[in-house]
Design a protein that fits this description.
single chain; 291 residues; alpha+beta; D-Maltodextrin-Binding Protein, domain 2; Alpha-Beta Plaits; seven-stranded mixed sheet; five-stranded mixed sheet; 10 helices; 29% helix; globular
């Protein structure tokens, strides 16, 4: 039913791990092949391509569904439907920023300070051109094939580049004077495919599986027993997603309690629960959480 395209490169390994955890294992002959398949009735075809190309291919209808960055959607001006952000790796936990940077000793503090004809190096020429046009600045946009930060001030006056923290730019002797865009990894769909009820339903089902995996990451299920007179003390310790599930044990022997908690807190929580009177404490991994 669906033709799916996934990103190659820096997001590739984390993307394949996400699909594996969602029980959508991507199978291919080798790590260098661009064709793959997923044994699932909702997916007919899988390709693995550069994220820069994915928005345009999805917009053109070559694929129904894809994963790429918002930066490439904006750079290519592709008409796609965003189903939502997917924060599934170190590279996608925080947004990256597309910024304008100049030498640290430059007198320019804002984009409005830049002169007409300013020379700009960037890997995002279309996004950069639109940005400077909106600011009323006639910029000389020069496509960069990498090492963009190394081109100022000798080759260009400023750069438009991608950064997460700004540390690399500062290390290169640059300062940020404006932010053009915040970018997350997104699940995107072809508009016509999304209007098809059957395809949209399949897309939403796949999205549920992927988001269920992400929701479960960093969380565990805790189950325990506790006597009635100690129940309130135990409940007060539990940081539940909504509220703990509490069931009475057979013959009034107390209560069984279970809830989902952050894995990072479990080393402190379990001893505290034991001190509060909990017994038979069990910690279980979680594969998915679907609300």
């Amino acid at each position: 039913m669906l033709k799916l395209v996934l990103p190659k490169g820096s997001l590739e390994k984390a993307t394949l791990e996400l699909f594996e955890a969602a029980d959508l294992r991507v199978r291919r002959d080798s790590v260098v092949t661009y064709r793959a398949d997923i044994v699932d009735p909702r997916i007919d075809e899988v390709r693995i391509l550069r994220p820069q190309e994915i928005p345009r291919y999805v917009a053109e209808g070559l694929f129904d569904l894809g994963i790429t960055g918002r930066d490439w959607v904006e750079e290519t001006a592709s008409e796609v439907v965003s189903l939502g952000e997917l924060h599934y790796s170190k590279a996608t936990d925080n947004p990256v920023r597309i910024v304008v940077a100049v030498p640290a000793d430059s007198p320019y503090e804002h984009v409005a300070d830049l002169p007409q004809g300013v020379r700009v190096s960037t890997e995002y020429p279309q996004l950069t051109r639109r940005f400077f046009e909106e600011k009323g600045i006639d910029a000389d946009i020069r496509l960069s094939y990498g090492a963009t930060e190394a081109k100022v001030p000798d080759i260009v006056d400023c750069i438009v580049d991608i950064t997460e923290t700004g540390r690399a730019l500062r290390a290169a002797g640059l300062k940020i004077i404006d932010t053009i865009l915040l970018s997350y990894t997104e699940l995107i769909a072809n508009p016509a495919s999304f209007e098809d009820p059957d395809k949209q339903h399949a897309m939403r089902q796949l999205q549920t599986l992927l988001e269920g995996v992400l929701e479960a990451r960093g969380k565990v299920l805790v189950k325990l027993n506790v006597r009635a007179e100690q129940l309130d003390r135990v409940i007060d310790l539990l940081p539940a997603m909504k509220s703990p599930t509490v069931n009475e044990l057979y013959a009034g022997a107390g209560y069984a309690v279970e809830t989902v908690v952050p894995k990072a807190t479990i080393n402190v929580l379990i001893p505290a629960l034991r001190d509060a009177g909990a017994t038979d404490i069990i910690e279980l991994p979680i594969s998915k959480i679907v609300h």
